[in-house]
TrEMBL record, chain A:
Belongs to the transketolase family. Residues 333-356 are annotated as: Disordered. It comes from Geodermatophilus pulveris. This is Transketolase. CDD domains: TPP_PYR_DXS_TK_like. Its cofactor is thiamine diphosphate. Keywords: Thiamine pyrophosphate. Residues 347-356 have a biased composition (Low complexity). SUPFAM superfamilies: Thiamin diphosphate-binding fold (THDP-binding), TK C-terminal domain-like. One of its GO terms (molecular function) is magnesium ion binding. InterPro entries: PDH/Transketolase, THDP-binding, Transketo_C/PFOR_II, Transketolase-like_Pyr-bd, Transketolase_C. Gene3D superfamilies: 3.40.50.920, 3.40.50.970.
UniProtKB/TrEMBL annotation, chain B:
Its cofactor is thiamine diphosphate. This is Transketolase. Keywords: Thiamine pyrophosphate. Signal peptide: none annotated. Residues 26-285 form the Transketolase N-terminal domain. Belongs to the transketolase family. The keyword DNA-binding does not apply.
Length: 356, 291
C-alpha cells in the first residue's frame, strides 16, 4: 500500500465534548445562570448535586448561593431522596447529576419519593442521549424510555440555551416533578432567531413547509433546522415542529402536523424505543391516523465510544445524515412525493434473539 | 397549645417513673390496637408490631412534638416509617396518638380504607412518607432535616428502620450524608428483630456489628433493649441532648413481645394467627399489663 499522509483521527477528547458546530453561537452554562436568576426572585429555590456540580453547570449556582447548595457526594439514591425531603418541607430543589445515574441508578427514588407524592422536585440530567463519547456507562440513550412510564412526571428535552433559560423558571412553576435533559457548557444558541417562546407542554412550529414535517425534540431540533435549510436549497419544503416537552405530549400539535400528506419524520437524541418516535406513533395510532412515521433516532443497541461528530454521523444524528435520510425517503429527484415505506434503517424488522 | 398536642415537648419535666408508666399503658393499647387490626386480616406483620410497640409508644407518648388534629403543622417533628410493612404498628400508634380515630382501625387493609397494608403518605393522616421499598426513609429524612435546618425550623426528624433495611445501600449513602452535614436534628431508630423475609438476619445477610457500623459512619449510637421502656426513655433523653452529629438508637426487640402465644411462633415474618387465638392473645396481653 502506498503511503499517503494519514488522516488525523478525531479523538474522544473530554467527557463532555460540545456538540456545537465550529463557529456556532453559544451561551455558557445557561442552566446555572438561569437558576441563579430564578433564585434571586424565589428564596425557596435550592440546588444539590452528586459530585457533579461542576459538570452540570450547577457550580454557577453553588458559587452564587453556597448556603442554598447541598453537596450529596457520589450517591444518587441519596441525592434524589434528599431532594424529596427538601421539597416535603416546602423548598423547591433542582437536583443535578448525569442522566444515566438519575434514571438507571436512582429510578426507584425518583419514582417513589418524588413522583408518587407529586413533589416539586426538578431533576436535571446531563449527557442525555448521545452527548458523550465515553460509551454506554455515560450515554443515557434510553432515559426517556425509562421515565415516560412514570406518572406525574413532566419531561423536557430542550434544544438550546434559549430553551433552557426559559424552561428553568417554567419547571419551578410547575407544581409537580420534572426531568430536564440538560445541555451544559458551551450550549448552542439557535432559537432566538425564531419567533419562539418555550411553553411547557406545547410544541412550536419553527418553520412551515409543504413537503416534509420534521417533528423534533432536544438538540435534534437544531439539526432539523439545519437540515431543513439545506433541503430548501434542493427545493424540498420542510417544516419543523419542535417538541421540547416529551410528557405531557402536545398531541394536538402532532395530530395537526400529521393530518397532511407530508412525509412525517421524527428526530430525537434517544433510542428509537420508547422516545419521541414511539410517542408520536402511539398518538397517531390511538387517534386513528394512519400516517407513517419515519424515525430518526439512535439504534436499539449499546453505542460505541469515540468522538461525538463521528458517532453522530455513524448513528444518523448529524445534519448530513438527516438530510440523506429525508432524501432517501422522498426518493432522489422526487421531492415532495412520498415513496412506499422503506424499512427504517435503525430498527431491524426481526431483532436477533438475545441468546444468539 | 395543649399538652396533648405537644406531649412532653420537654420530657425531663415529667417524673421519670410517671413517664415510664404512662408509656407502658400506651404500649399496651398500641399492642391491643395491632391485634385488633391483625384479626381483620387473620395474618400479617403482627409479630413486628408487637415487637416495636414499646418503641412507638415511647416516641409518640414521650418524644415527638405533633398536633393530632393538624398533621401538616409545619413545626411538627417528623416520624418517617421507611418499613412500609410495619404500617399496622404505625396505625396502632397513630390511633393511640389521636391522629386517626380508633374505630377506623377495623378498616385496616380493606378496599377504600385509609389504612392500606403498606403505609403511604397520600392515604393516612400522620404518615409522612410512602415506605415499602426499603432504604428510602433515611435519604428522605436527610432532605427534611437539611431543609428544616435551612429554614431555621427546630423540628426533629425521626426515621424508623429495620435491621433488614440495613442491607440497602441507600441507607448507608444517607448515613454518610447525615454525618457529613452534621444533622443533629436526625434520630434514626433501628428495630433489630433479627428476622427477615427469608429467615434470620444472621443467615440472610449479616449486619452485625450494627452499632460499630453506625459509629464508623459518624453517628452517635446507643443500643438498648427495645422492649424495656425505662431503657428507651433514658436513651431517647440522651440522644435528644446530643449535638453535632446525627443520632441512632438501635433497639433489640422480640417478635411478638407481650403475647407469649406468638413470641416463639415459627414463620414469624408474616405471621398466621388462627381465628380462635386472637382472644387468647388479647387475654395474655392484658395479663402482661397487670404484672
Amino acid at each position: 500500500m502506498t503511503s499517503t499522509t494519514p488522516r488525523k483521527k478525531l479523538t474522544t477528547s473530554a467527557m463532555i465534548a460540545s456538540f456545537a458546530d465550529p463557529g456556532q453561537r453559544t451561551t455558557s452554562a445557561p442552566f446555572g445562570h438561569a437558576l441563579n436568576r430564578l433564585a434571586e426572585q424565589r428564596p425557596e429555590i435550592v440546588g444539590l448535586s452528586a459530585d457533579l456540580a461542576k459538570y452540570t453547570d450547577m457550580h454557577v449556582f453553588r458559587d452564587a448561593h453556597p448556603d442554598r447548595f447541598f453537596q450529596m457526594g457520589m450517591a444518587e439514591q441519596s441525592l434524589l431522596g434528599t431532594a424529596a425531603g427538601l421539597a416535603e418541607v416546602g423548598l423547591v430543589p433542582f437536583a443535578s447529576t448525569y442522566s444515566v445515574f438519575a434514571t438507571r441508578r436512582a429510578y426507584d427514588f425518583l419514582c417513589l419519593d418524588i413522583a408518587e407524592p407529586n413533589l416539586n422536585v426538578n431533576v436535571v440530567g446531563a449527557l442525555p442521549g448521545l452527548t458523550t463519547g465515553y460509551g454506554p456507562s455515560h450515554q443515557a440513550t434510553e432515559d426517556l424510555a425509562i421515565l415516560r412510564g412514570c406518572p406525574n412526571l413532566t419531561i423536557v428535552d430542550p434544544c438550546d440555551s434559549v430553551d433552557i433559560e426559559q424552561a428553568v423558571p417554567a419547571l419551578a412553576d410547575a407544581p409537580g416533578p420534572t426531568y430536564l435533559r440538560l445541555l451544559r457548557g458551551a450550549v448552542p444558541t439557535v432559537l432566538d432567531e425564531y419567533d419562539y417562546r418555550f411553553e411547557l407542554g406545547k410544541a412550536a412550529e419553527l418553520r412551515t413547509g409543504r413537503d416534509v414535517v420534521l417533528v423534533s425534540t432536544g438538540l435534534m431540533t437544531m439539526r432539523a433546522l439545519q437540515a431543513a435549510a439545506r433541503l430548501e436549497a434542493d427545493h424540498v419544503d420542510v417544516a419543523v415542529l419542535h417538541v421540547p416537552t416529551i410528557k405531557p405530549l402536545d398531541t394536538e400539535a402532532i395530530l395537526a402536523a400529521a393530518r397532511t400528506d407530508r412525509l412525517l419524520v421524527t428526530c430525537e437524541n434517544h433510542t428509537v424505543i420508547g422516545g419521541l418516535a414511539e410517542s408520536v406513533a402511539a398518538t397517531l395510532a390511538f387517534n386513528g391516523v394512519g400516517t407513517r412515521v419515519v424515525p430518526i433516532a439512535l439504534p436499539d443497541e449499546f453505542l460505541a465510544a469515540g468522538a461525538l461528530p463521528t458517532l453522530h454521523d455513524r448513528y444518523g444524528l448529524s445534519t448530513d445524515a438527516v438530510v440523506a435520510r429525508v432524501k432517501a425517503e422522498l426518493g432522489d429527484g422526487d421531492a415532495g412525493r412520498r415513496r412506499p415505506a422503506a424499512p427504517p434503517a435503525v430498527m431491524p424488522a426481526d431483532p436477533a434473539p438475545a441468546t444468539a | 397549645m395543649t399538652s396533648l398536642t405537644t406531649p412532653q415537648a420537654a420530657p425531663a419535666a415529667g417524673d421519670r417513673a410517671e413517664r415510664i408508666e404512662r408509656i407502658r399503658q400506651a404500649a399496651y393499647r398500641v399492642r391491643r390496637n395491632a391485634l385488633d387490626m391483625g384479626e381483620v386480616q387473620g395474618q400479617g406483620y403482627i409479630g413486628q408490631a408487637l415487637g416495636v410497640a414499646d418503641v412507638l409508644a415511647t416516641v409518640y407518648t414521650d418524644q415527638l412534638r405533633y398536633r393530632p388534629e393538624d398533621p401538616h403543622w409545619p413545626d411538627r417533628d417528623r416520624f418517617l416509617l421507611s418499613i412500609g410493612h410495619y404500617a399496622i404498628a404505625l396505625y396502632a400508634a397513630l390511633a393511640e396518638a389521636g391522629t386517626i380515630p380508633l374505630e377506623e382501625l377495623e378498616t385496616y387493609g380493606s378496599d377504600d380504607s385509609r389504612l392500606p397494608m403498606s403505609a403511604m403518605a397520600s392515604y393516612t393522616p400522620g404518615v409522612e412518607i410512602s415506605g415499602g421499598s426499603l432504604g428510602h426513609g433515611l435519604p428522605v429524612a436527610t432532605g427534611m432535616a437539611l431543609g428544616l435546618r435551612h429554614q431555621g425550623n427546630g423540628a426533629r426528624v425521626f426515621n424508623l428502620l429495620s435491621d433488614g433495611e440495613l442491607d440497602e445501600g441507600s441507607t448507608w449513602e444517607a448515613a454518610l450524608a447525615c454525618a457529613h452535614h452534621g444533622l443533629d436534628n436526625v434520630t434514626a431508630i433501628v428495630d433489630v428483630n433479627a428476622l427477615q423475609a427469608d429467615g434470620p438476619t444472621a443467615g440472610v445477610l449479616r449486619t452485625e456489628p450494627v452499632t460499630d457500623k453506625w459509629r464508623a459512619f459518624g453517628w452517635h449510637a446507643l443500643r438498648v433493649d427495645g422492649n424495656d421502656v425505662a431503657a428507651l426513655v433514658d436513651a431517647f433523653d440522651e440522644l435528644r441532648a446530643h449535638r453535632g452529629s446525627p443520632s441512632v438508637l438501635i433497639c433489640d426487640t422480640r417478635i411478638g413481645c407481650g403475647v407469649p402465644l406468638l413470641e416463639g411462633r415459627e414463620k414469624a415474618h408474616f405471621m398466621r394467627v388462627e381465628a380462635h387465638e386472637w382472644q387468647t392473645a388479647r387475654t395474655q396481653l392484658e395479663e402482661g399489663l397487670a404484672r
